[in-house]
Amino acid sequence: MEAIIRQEAGWILTQQLASGVVVTAYPGQPKIVPYFAHLALYGLAAWGYSPERVRAYLDWYLAHLEKPDRYGVTGTVYDYHLDGEGVESPTFSYDSSDSYAATFLTLVRRYYETSGDGGWLEHHWPELDQVAGAMLATLQRDNLTLARPDWKVKYLMDNCEVYRGLKDYAWLLAQVKGAGEAERYEALAGKVREALEAKMRVNGGYCPAIYRAGLRRRPNWKKWYPDALAQLFPLITGVLSPEEETARRIYGNFLRNYPRWYEQTTPVNFLTTLVVYAATLMEDRWRVRQYVTGLRENIIARGHPWPYHAAEAGILLLALKAYLTGGSGEG
Fold first, then answer.
1. Which residues pair with 80 in a beta bridge?
2. Which of 52, 62, 110, 188 has its C-alpha lying 20 to 30 A from 286's C-alpha?
3. How far apart are alpha carbons 9 and 1 in whole angstroms?
4. CATH number at residue 50
5. What is the arithmetic mean of pLDDT over 185-206?
6. Apex CA 313: angle with CA 309 and CA 317, to 5°?
7. Residue 27 exposed, middle or buried by CB count within 10 Å (0-12, 13-18, 19+)
8. Which domain holds residue 318?
9. Helix, coil or strand: residue 232
10. Is pLDDT at 265 greater than 60 in this prediction?
């Protein structure tokens, strides 16, 4: 596993451009998707690898904040296309305003925990506050966020990431600025968690989304994305602790529907490493080992064929940190 960690960390860095941005190598044309860049760098930051390269990406993101964007939100970042010469061109859109911002703040915490770079934080508080504002720009009266201003859906995955982003930003504020400024974000995180439990919990899991007029859709465990994968996000983001009965029930339901998930390590039938991270947190160590063996043989040894990309490698590093340290992979 240590050899895989070193190899994958190096491979992630090959996906980073001179500007600092991390690319998602979509077939046909690479694209800059900040959400995937954040996940890619989670692993590097958690291990403390190449902090200067992680910081280069943080600088790129803050330099590309929209003030405001096409939806009137300040503190967001668009996706970008890359042409054949590496020129970055904005798409003037993004998949979500809440998750992009939330996962960036989580990345900042991971960077600070292992680098101790308080100077970078002190220099960038104004921009970080704008990112936090973008995360909350679509917060509704029920304390759940819409994916973006023009997309009136409240996703389970997004709101779990918002909970984590609020907790991590509160932690950063407490570490550097003191408890006073952190209290607001800590309180908001608690309200988001309460809303997730009150509005999205259903028998045996969570509804993957709430649509207009409060329409809730029960999870279809046979539908991999978003339904089944979304069920693991409360575990991944700390909304649920692994010791809770609800966490054990959800992971049990996942295993009943995907008992041999650890065998899905071929390019045609690839299973996201987010499952590996959830399995590690749930102490499912045998399946994690089986998956990593298959991943080494079928993905890494074959040159990382699509759909494996930098974000998958970053979450793998996070999972292996948790596996080897017995924690969450943070710090």
1. 32, 90
2. 110
3. 12
4. 1.50.10.10
5. 95
6. 170
7. exposed
8. 2-325
9. coil
10. yes
Q: How confident is the model at residue 331 (pLDDT cuts 50, 70, 90)?
A: very low
Q: Where are the alpha helices (DSSP H) in the chain?
A: 2-14, 34-47, 51-63, 97-115, 118-135, 156-176, 179-195, 229-230, 233-236, 245-257, 273-281, 285-295, 310-325
pLDDT at 327 over 80: no
Token couple for 101:
């911002």
- Is 330 a domain residue? no
- CA–CA separation, 115 vs 95, rounded Å? 30
Contacts of residue 234, Cβ cutoff 8 Å, sequence gap at least 6: 156, 160, 196, 206, 240, 246, 247, 250
- Reduce the secondary structure of 133-156 to three states and give it as a string: HHHCCCECCCCCECCECCECCEEH
CB atoms within 10 A of CB 264: 18
Distances (CA, A) of 166 to 71, 109, 179, 190, 207: 22, 11, 14, 9, 22
Q: Within a domain: residue 45?
A: yes
Q: How many structural domains is the chain composed of?
A: 1
Residue 72 falls inside a structural domain: yes
Whether residue 282 lies inside any domain: the answer is yes
* Token pair recorded at residue 61: 């993101």
Widest Cα–Cα separation across the chain: 52
Contact 44, 318 (CB under 8 A): no
Give the C-alpha separation, 331 to 328, whole Å. Answer: 9
Which pLDDT does position 5 carry in this prediction? Answer: 97
pLDDT digits 0-9 by tens, 79-98: 999 988 889 999 999 999 99
Q: What are phi and psi of 24, to 5 degrees?
A: -100, 120
Say what the pTM is: 0.96
3-state DSSP assignment of residue 131 = helix
